[in-house]
Write a structure and sequence with these properties.
The structure holds two protein chains of two kinds.
Chain A: H1 2-17, E1 31-35, H2 42-58, E2 62-66, H3 73-81, E3 88-93, H4 99-102, E4 112-122, E5 124-128, H5 136-145, E6 151-154, H6 160-172, E7 177-180, H7 184-192, E8 198-201, H8 207-211, E9 215-220, E10 245-253, H9 258-273, H10 275-283, E11 288-291, H11 293-315
Parallel strand pairs in A: 1-2, 1-3, 6-7, 6-8
Antiparallel strand pairs in A: 3-10, 4-10, 4-11, 5-8, 5-9
Helix pairs in contact in A: 2-9, 2-10
Chain B: H1 2-15, H2 18-36, H3 42-49, H4 58-75, H5 77-83, H6 92-103, H7 107-140, H8 145-159, H9 167-181, E1 184-185, E2 192-193, H10 207-225, H11 228-231, H12 247-268, H13 274-289, H14 302-317, H15 319-325, H16 331-342, H17 351-354, H18 356-377, H19 380-385, H20 392-411, H21 414-432, H22 438-460, H23 472-501
Antiparallel strand pairs in B: 1-2
Helix pairs in contact in B: 1-18, 2-4, 2-18, 3-4, 3-16, 4-7, 4-14, 4-16, 4-18, 5-6, 5-7, 6-7, 6-14, 7-12, 7-14, 7-15, 7-18, 8-22, 8-23, 9-22, 10-20, 10-21, 12-13, 12-14, 13-14, 20-21
The chains are: A alpha/beta, B mainly alpha.
């Protein structure tokens, strides 16, 4: 608690220190993006690709730095404490709105200014192609008859896709047996080896195995069908009102001047529209989803509330 | 098999273009440098250089990035041998006999045998990759949580007394390692454990901080603790013709190298901390079968040659699940998977079919890369060995500086530096009272994985312990553990009877 108060005080102190910047001069040096996860993960890859194309529109290079640890807490704490001058951004991913409900963090999304949302991927359940369930209906019927018997792997306890699986079982009125793994890769491996019945994932995890015909998408939690798999129906089409996914965007420390935010937003927007980035994103099978600062802020606020309720329900 | 050879030949035509040779060379050089520097490891090295490959085609990019990975395995032992500072998990064991060899003026042979062993292991490992990849990858999938748990138990019991010192003290240290391993977010429920409200502790204690602290900093402190006049001494510096291994050294090492290669390749296929298990298992094997086990811990060349070969072939084996299944079992291959994605290659079961030029080109480049690394590393031996000419009163502060900067490069975290210093103090006390650091580090690596696999298994089986005995692979490992525990008793009984009969 004392720690938390000190951090907030520190953040306030830094925001007072901030000299009003003139956007006309921004940027005079390179801009860095803090990734609160290790290099090589989905978030890291997307922002490295975006950093590569945005530099030329911003006029200065965009550098990616990894600050892994604490399920993202270390990176977000550092991003929050950075000078609000627009030179230090942090990648905002769904766990930013989950983590503060689980452990006592010094930050919530309110300690940051939204800049832009870049990606939004629907979550999905994958099963092996030779699974006994041919359709979502058969799967759910089996789950109803055998509560807590179907094992569903996820990429980590309390992480995004775990909560998606928990929310889905509430929406569908069934109970699964949730098995946490240390990342999306290991959970997909366990599914391939037949050690779990299904996994909850978010692309690009497992997509290549679906393409190869070893796994299939059993439940797709998006608003509309995926371009890559037009034959796979969403769960909404099948009568369950449920859609959920993971978003990935950029945020700046609270107190960053609005004109600096605008300049950053405009540069990253152009970086997103760059054909090189579009090709990279397509190859990674991620779903680009642009949102401006205001809409992105609303999304984070809504999810913060949603996950708060969900985490409380689970902890009961 | 004939088809594989044909593919491999076409791979060589791809790998020997001027551009690809250049990228292979760059990868090997960068890998060696990263391996030599403590702290910054192959993971960070590959991640840093991914943006530099944006402009080139996927095959050249992967040739270079893979070169960094196996190149780092060559350089990794250098600081272990010279300064007792293990830069990576894979080179912890090398500290034990490698550093002792250096203290006896045999740094040259130790460094050279690492390069030679790595070359042999790397080359044989690639052969395994070419001919055995698809069936082995499928076999690796058979490892689910229960199998994984039993393997960890086996590794834990068999390897915790790796140095052959006091069994009681080794087990005590292993327990300390297990306890330290529980710090951080609970892997199953996501709750914070033993973090005392510290955000920095949420991610757990960084392995490299413990390793460098216990070995590197601990060793410096032990030296400082010695009488003043010893500090003015230099380590014995060898004459030129003693810089490279003698024929006798090679004869003693070759068996260790081949056994290490086999152990490393097998262990490397299993997901998880393969380099640690492979190097510990190799060291343990060499000590057990050696005709002079009393030499181990005092500078036995087999204790360097075996583990160093094991970590190289484990590294080659780690490419199998990556290329055949698109699944990274080791963190460095996870980064390579990311690099493939960036270059528009979707890793997965269809990779070899869709991009044969990439797969076979990269494999062929590994042969070339291994040769480059051998040629590159052997001439450096005299240079590195001469570092020990620096008097201790100057060398020791430099080591501390080296450790601190190296530590910072791992996570760019000042907190990690403090952790390293704390473990340095602990390492000093442990050395003083003859407690081994190796079992502690083993437990620190295996403990969290063991816990997760145990809890995952029981979650899958709804609390039924039968899951560990009902599956053949899992049962085999548990049976192996029991045999290992009973074997000394049986042998003792057998020896007694034999004596009694005479």
């Amino acid at each position: 608690m004392g720690m938390e108060r000190k951090m907030v005080a520190m953040a306030l102190f830094f925001s007072l220190l901030a000299v009003p910047l003139h956007a006309a001069e921004f940027p005079t040096k390179e801009v860095q993006i803090i990734i609160p996860w290790a290099a090589g993960g989905a978030t890291d890859l997307i922002f490295r690709a975006l950093a590569a194309t945005t530099g030329k529109y911003l006029g200065k290079a965009v550098v990616v730095v990894n600050r892994p640890g604490g399920g993202g807490a270390v990176g977000y704490t550092e991003g929050m404490q950075a000078k609000p001058d627009g030179y230090t951004l942090t990648s905002a991913v769904t766990p930013l709105t989950i983590l503060p409900h689980q452990v006592s963090t010094a930050f919530t999304y309110r300690n940051f200014e939204p800049v832009i949302n870049v990606v939004s991927d629907p979550s999905m359940f994958l099963v092996r192609s030779d699974a006994p369930w041919k359709s979502l209906k058969e799967f759910l019927d089996y789950a109803k008859k055998n509560p807590s018997m179907i094992t569903v792997g996820n990429s980590g306890a309390g992480g995004g896709v775990h909560l998606v699986a928990l929310a889905f079982e509430r929406a569908a009125g069934v109970r699964f047996n949730h098995i946490p793994f240390s990342g999306g890769g290991p959970s997909v491996t366990a599914l391939l080896g037949g050690h779990v019945n299904a996994v909850s994932v978010s692309p690009p995890e497992g997509i290549s195995h679906v393409q190869a015909g070893k796994l299939k998408i059993l439940a797709l939690f998006s608003e509309k069908r995926l371009e890559m798999f037009p034959d796979v129906p969403t769960v909404k089409e099948q009568g369950i009102d449920f859609a959920m996914g993971m978003w990935r965007g950029l945020i700046a420390p609270k107190g960053t001047p609005p004109d600096v935010i605008k300049k950053l937003h405009d540069a990253f927007k152009r970086g997103m529209d760059d054909p090189v980035f579009l090709k990279n994103a397509k190859d990674m099978a991620v779903n680009l989803h642009y949102l401006g600062p205001e809409a992105f802020g609303k999304l984070m606020a809504a999810d913060h509330e949603f996950y708060g309720k969900l985490v409380k329900e689970i902890k009961k | 098999m004939f088809e594989s050879i044909q593919h491999l030949l076409s791979g060589f035509t791809i790998a020997t273009t001027a551009q690809n040779l250049l990228y292979c060379l760059v990868g090997a050089i960068v890998g060696t440098i990263i391996g030599v520097l403590p702290g910054i490891g192959p993971i960070a090295g590959i991640a840093l250089l991914i943006p530099a490959t944006f402009g080139v085609n996927a095959t050249s990019a992967i040739i270079m990035l893979a070169g960094i990975y196996y190149g780092a395995m060559y350089g990794g032992s250098t600081t272990s041998i010279l300064l007792n500072v293990p830069g990576e998990t894979a080179s912890v064991i090398t500290c034990i006999d490698g550093y002792q060899m250096a203290q006896k003026g045999r740094a040259g042979p130790a460094l050279a045998i690492c390069a030679i062993g790595s070359f042999i292991a790397g080359s044989l490992g690639i052969l395994g990759l070419v001919f055995l990849a698809p069936p082995l990858a499928e076999a690796a999938l058979a490892f689910g949580p229960p199998e994984y748990f039993s393997l960890m138990v086996f590794g834990f019991i068999v390897l915790s007394n790796v140095t052959g010192g006091s069994l009681l003290k080794s087990l005590m240290m292993a327990v300390v390692g297990l306890i330290i391993g529980t710090i951080g977010l609970d892997p199953v429920t996501g709750d914070a454990r033993f973090t005392f409200g510290s955000v920095s502790l949420l991610g757990g204690i960084e392995f490299v901080a413990v390793a460098i602290g216990l070995f590197g900093i601990g060793e410096v402190l032990i030296n400082v603790h010695q009488p003043q006049e010893l500090l003015d001494q230099k380590v014995l510096v060898p004459r030129l013709r003693e810089l490279y291994p003698s024929l006798q050294d090679l004869r003693r090492s070759i068996g260790a190298i081949l056994r290490g290669t086999g152990i490393g390749f097998g262990v490397g296929l299993v997901p998880g901390p393969a380099p640690v298990i492979a190097t510990y298992a190799s060291y343990m094997t060499e000590r057990r079968i050696s005709k002079h086990p009393e030499m181990f811990g005092k500078g036995a060349i087999e204790g360097v040659a075996g583990p160093e070969s094991a970590n190289n072939s484990a590294c080659q084996a780690a490419f199998i699940p990556l290329f055949v299944l698109g699944i990274p079992f080791a963190p460095p291959t996870a980064i390579l998977l990311g690099a493939l994605l960036i270059h528009g290659v979707t890793p997965g079961p269809m990779l070899i079919g869709q991009h044969p030029e990439l797969f076979w080109g990269v494999i062929a480049s590994m042969y070339i890369g291994n040769f480059i690394l051998l040629v590159l590393n052997l001439p450096f031996v005299p240079l590195f060995a001469n570092i020990l000419r620096i008097p201790k009163r100057m060398l020791l502060p430099l080591i501390i500086l080296f450790c601190i900067t190296g530590m910072f490069t791992v996570n760019n975290s000042v907190f990690d530096i403090w952790m390293m210093l704390v473990f340095g103090a602990l390492g000093f006390l442990m050395r003083k009272w003859a407690y081994e650091g190796a079992p502690l580090l083993l437990a620190l690596v295996l403990g969290p994985k063991l816990e997760v696999a145990f809890r995952q298994s029981l979650m899958i089986s709804h609390g039924d312990f039968g899951i560990f005995f009902g599956r053949p692979v899992s049962l085999a490992f548990l049976a192996g553990t029991i045999v290992f525990l009973l074997f000394p008793l049986v042998r003792l009984a057998f020896q007694k009877r034999k004596k009694g009969g005479e």
